[in-house]
Every structure is written in C-alpha cells, then in structure tokens.
Amino acid sequence: MKLNPILTALSAATLGFLIGLSFPVQIAPQLPCYVLSWSGGGGDAASNVLGRLSWVPFVVSNNNNNSSGTAAAAAAAAEVMNQNKTTITASSDQVVTSSTASVAAAAPKLPPTGAERLPPNIVVSESDLHLRRLWGEPREDTPVRKYLLTLTVGYTEKANVNATVSKFSDDFDVMLFHYDGRTTEWDEEFPWSQSAIHVSARKQAKWWYAKRFLHPRVVAPYDYVFLWDEDLDVTFFDADEYVRLVTKHGLAISQPALDFARGKKSYEITARRSSGVEVHLNTTGGPGNCSDVHQRPCSGFVEVMAPVFSREAWACAWHMVQNDLVHGWGLDVNFWRCVDEPERQIGVVDAQYVAHRAVPSLGRQGNPETGGGGKVRARAWREYSHFRARMTNADRAAQREAAAAAAATSPPRSK
Ligand SMILES: *[C@@H]1O[C@H](CO)[C@@H](O)[C@H](O)[C@H]1NC(C)=O
Ligand SMILES: *[C@@H]1O[C@H](CO)[C@@H](O)[C@H](O)[C@H]1NC(C)=O
Ligand SMILES: *[C@@H]1O[C@H](CO)[C@@H](O)[C@H](O)[C@H]1NC(C)=O
Ligand SMILES: *[C@@H]1O[C@H](CO)[C@@H](O)[C@H](O)[C@H]1NC(C)=O
Ligand SMILES: *[C@@H]1O[C@H](CO)[C@@H](O)[C@H](O)[C@H]1NC(C)=O
Ligand SMILES: *[C@@H]1O[C@H](CO)[C@@H](O)[C@H](O)[C@H]1NC(C)=O
C-alpha cells in the first residue's frame, strides 16, 4: 500500500503534538528551513489538520552569530499563527529547539509543499536572478551577487536609468522590468544591460512585476532587494555606501532621503536632513503635521517609490502585495508589519540621497482612448481603497481567530 508521505508525516506530527514530545532540530547554516506551525485551537477533527498547518520558510544566515535574528524569525513564524503552542528558541550554536510543540520540531523533516514526492536531499527550494554560462564547470561560474537592484523602466528614461545603474557596483545583480516592450535597444547601448535580467510585459506597474518575478524564494540569496522607480536623480547616491549604512543602522526597510530642493516634495519623513546625520527614523513635523511621532507617516514609514528591503522583510512584504492591485498604493503604510520594531528598523538614509524627478511615465501607460493618465490615477486611488478595506477586514478576522483560539485554550473555570 502506498501511503501519501505528507499524510504519514502529518499523522506523526499530530501524534507527537498530542503526546507533547519535543525534539531538538539542527538547522544547517544557509539552508532554508521550514517550520510547521500549529494554528489550531486543538481538539479538531483530523480533516481540519491540513488546513490549519502552514509552512513558514525562513533562512538561517551562517555568519549571524547573534541568535536573536534566528530567534526573531522563528518567533515571527510562531507569532503569525498567534498561538501559544509553539515556542521556539535559538541558541548560539544554532540549534533550534521546540520546547512545547513537537509539530514544529518534526517539521523540518518535511519538504516544502510540492516536493513531498522527492527525496529531501535533491530539493532545491531557492533560486536567484544571476546569469550563468551555458558551458564550463557550474561552480566556476561568476558567483551570485550579494544584492539585487530592480528598476521598472521605459526606454525614454534610458539616460537616467543608465546613470542609476552606474551607481551600483558589481555586488549587485540587475533586473529591469520593461513596461514599454523595448528591450533590445538597451543591450545595444549599455554594456551592463547584457548581464542584466530583462522582463518585458507591456503597460504594467512595478508591483505587478514584483509579485510575479521577485518571489522570496527566488531572491533569497540577496541580502537586500532594491525596488526602484526609474525617475530618481542619483547624483548624490552610492549604493555600496547605502548598503553599509542600512546594515550599520539595522534598517530592514529603508529608502534614500529625498532632496526636496531638486525634486518633487512628498512626506516630511522622507525629506533629507542636511544636519550631517546618516539616517533618520522619524519626524515631528509642524503643528497638525506629524503631531504623533508614533503614527505613520511620521515613523516606521518609507514610500513605495524607492524602497530597499532586507531579505526577511521582503519575504514578508511580498505576501502583502495583492495579485490584482498593481499600483501598490497603501503598501507603504503597512510595511511596518514586516519588522519587529518599525520605529527602529524602518528609516530614511540621509547620507546617500536622491531627488524624485517625478516623470509621469506610468500615467502615459493608460490607453488614451479610455482617458489616459487620469484614468490610471483614478485606478490607483480605487486600488488604495480596496487595499485598505482588505487590510481592515483581515485584521478583524485575525483578531476574531485569536480570540477564539485563546478562548479554546484557556483552562476551564472551576465550578
Ligand atoms: C558567538 O557568540 C558567542 C557568545 O555569544 C561566542 O562565544 C562565540 O565565539 C561567537 N562566535 C563567533 C563565530 O563569533
Ligand atoms: C543581537 O542583535 C539584537 C538586535 O540586532 C540586539 O538587540 C542584541 O543586543 C544582540 N545581541 C548580542 C548578543 O549581540
Ligand atoms: C504560554 O505558555 C506558557 C507555558 O506553557 C505559559 O506560562 C504562559 O502563560 C502561556 N501564555 C499565554 C498567553 O497563554
Ligand atoms: C552611462 O553612464 C555612465 C556613467 O555615468 C557613462 O559613463 C556612460 O557614458 C553612459 N552611457 C551612455 C551610453 O550614455
Ligand atoms: C507636513 O507639512 C509640510 C509643510 O508644512 C507639507 O509639505 C507636508 O506634506 C506635510 N506632511 C504630511 C504628512 O502631512
Ligand atoms: C526618533 O529617532 C531618533 C533617531 O533618529 C531616536 O533617537 C528618537 O528616540 C526617535 N524619537 C521617537 C519619539 O521615537
């Protein structure tokens, strides 16, 4: 009789859960690891189990001697489920031990969804966006770069895009999303283009591409992912220095400050401080403007125009990008959900700054016969209101579920 391996594993896990065993789990450095988190309130029929178990991938960095990063990832995984059944702690020798939930402990033995039929040692669940040769020894190919720059571009902005890419070193893999269908011209004019990834899909917006081509498992090797627009003036920007600063200040989500004198103004929080600071995290603005520093956009906020995500933050943010909402409006006020401490881990880099030239390139992508740029903008606003409504509903549903789970697990009152 051929048993479905995942069901076998699940029944083992469920059994373990019921008995309350705990297993130490070794996490190999730099290997993806799957934590199976229990989200059930307990006492459900077995048929419910599948729906209540979720895969939560996270990557353990091998040069991270600070266990809190690992613990935070694991804790976040547990927290997503909003349950007290899974307690994961990481010690400095990178052994993750599940103290109360054997479901979590047993999980790393299970392959990612879809790979159940394969022997685990052949499963490669991560990829990258690095070009390889078709010949030679694979391990002698040029190594995958440490960071990824993505730009959503049209050919008319080629001069600025070239200037932008020139500010990024060889430590970056480069990926261009073309919204105007013109790709071959780039290779003819710019040598760097020949080693860039080009994705061409007409008349789409940045977040449409990001959802489809920047899956967290595909960008997993990159420490930071830049999701930039094409119309930034980068005269006073250097990418390596930028990365050094966000690393130094522990910014998981960041953007370069904007020089309001040379470009479009936007939120006060993104304005460049000329006082010689390297980064800033908040603004108090004037009266009636950021009167509460703890509210977005006064802290814990960067715009969708030029965000830079750490690997972990992007793995979260990607999930928030909706499939049908292409303009991404409203994501910025929710980026805070993807870090532990938004007021410390989301910030604006003053020492490396840009100016927003605000070329209305996206507006031109509207069909003139149906209203052109005005209609594009109207859709962006409509998407913004959809997104807000979805987020509100999702928050409410999660709260209800948490409350129900808490009620189910609280000890029965004595008579
Ligand atoms: C990691 O930190 C521990 C103490 O927390 C220390 O004993 C150990 O030497 C460190 N390892 C490395 C590689 O820095
Ligand atoms: C680990 O990193 C966290 C945040 O980055 C920090 O608060 C903590 O002090 C660090 N712990 C050690 C032992 O370095
Ligand atoms: C979680 O579990 C621990 C130990 O099992 C217990 O001490 C703690 O009170 C629980 N917390 C909640 C919020 O139920
Ligand atoms: C691209 O930018 C670099 C750096 O600014 C510059 O040297 C080069 O001439 C530009 N290439 C073209 C074709 O304009
Ligand atoms: C704060 O005030 C400045 C000028 O007083 C304005 O330009 C800016 O848009 C305001 N920011 C917000 C978030 O309202
Ligand atoms: C604002 O950010 C600075 C660091 O840039 C920090 O020292 C300060 O505590 C923050 N203010 C508030 C109210 O959080």
In one word, what is the shape? globular
Helix content: 25-40%
Q: Main β-sheet, in a few words? A: 9 strands, mixed
* Structural domain count: 2
* Heterogens: 2-acetamido-2-deoxy-beta-D-glucopyranose
Measured distance between first and last alpha carbons: 50 Å
Rg calc: 23 Å
Structural class: alpha/beta
Report the CATH C-level class of the largest domain. Answer: Alpha Beta
**Pattern of helices and strands:** HEEHEHEEHEHEHEHEEHEEEHHEH
Q: Count of helical segments? A: 11
Strand element count = 14
Task: Determine the mean pLDDT.
Answer: 79
Strand content: 15-25%
CATH architecture of the largest domain: Alpha-Beta Complex
CATH topology of the largest domain: Spore Coat Polysaccharide Biosynthesis Protein SpsA, Chain A
Q: What ranges have pLDDT less than 50 throughout 5 or more consecutive residues?
A: 7-107
Account of the protein in words:
- 30% of the residues lie in helices and 17% in strands.
- The strands form three sheets. Strands 6, 7, 8, 9, 10, 11, 12, 13 and 14 form a nine-stranded mixed β-sheet that branches.
- The chain has 415 residues and is of the alpha/beta class.
- A hairpin with a 4-residue loop joins strand 4 (88-90) and strand 5.
- It has helices spanning 5-19, 49-52, 67-80, 102-106, 158-166, 184-189, 206-213, 239-248, 311-320, 342-345, 372-409; strands spanning 24-26, 32-38, 53-59, 88-90, 95-98, 147-153, 172-178, 197-200, 224-228, 232-233, 253-258, 279-280, 308-310, 346-356.
- It binds 2-acetamido-2-deoxy-beta-D-glucopyranose (6 copies).
